[in-house]
Design a protein that fits this description.
The protein is mainly beta. It contains two helices and ten strands, in the order αββββββαββββ. The chain is globular. It starts with a helix and ends with a strand.
Length: 121
């Protein structure tokens, strides 16, 4: 049983997990926004903050239409809380949601001067 089912909440179609590679731990308290591209205009469809494990399992609806989406991470807020001067105040990951039946997990590996992402499961 997944964590969302165990807690009684449904997991959103798009989820994320942020890891701070500098300290080797999850990045808790990172504000995250999910947006949909509607004919060149980005429309917010969900917002949350990473939990103690660096995860967001409830970021917008449980079902989304095919299309172009963007996940934005407010890394300035996170690094300010850590008292770290970072180069990237925000990370935006734009992706194409093709398969409406599939779950989309968009992890972020973060440090003050670099970041990496991939399509998770």
């Amino acid at each position: 049983m997944n964590a969302a089912a165990a807690s009684g909440t449904e997991r959103s179609h798009v989820t994320t997990h942020v890891l701070d590679s500098t300290i080797g731990r999850p990045a808790a308290g990172v504000p995250v926004i999910l947006e949909h591209d509607e004919v060149g205009n980005w429309v917010m469809i969900g917002a949350a903050e990473t939990d103690a494990d660096g995860r967001v399992n409830a970021l917008g609806p449980v079902e989304l239409a095919a299309g172009r989406y963007r996940v934005s991470f407010d890394t300035a807020t996170y690094f300010a809380e850590q008292e770290v001067n970072a180069f990237y105040p925000e990370v935006q990951i734009t992706f194409q949601l093709h398969d409406t039946a599939a779950h989309y997990h968009v992890p972020l590996l973060l440090s003050p001067f670099a970041y990496s992402t991939y399509r998770g499961s």
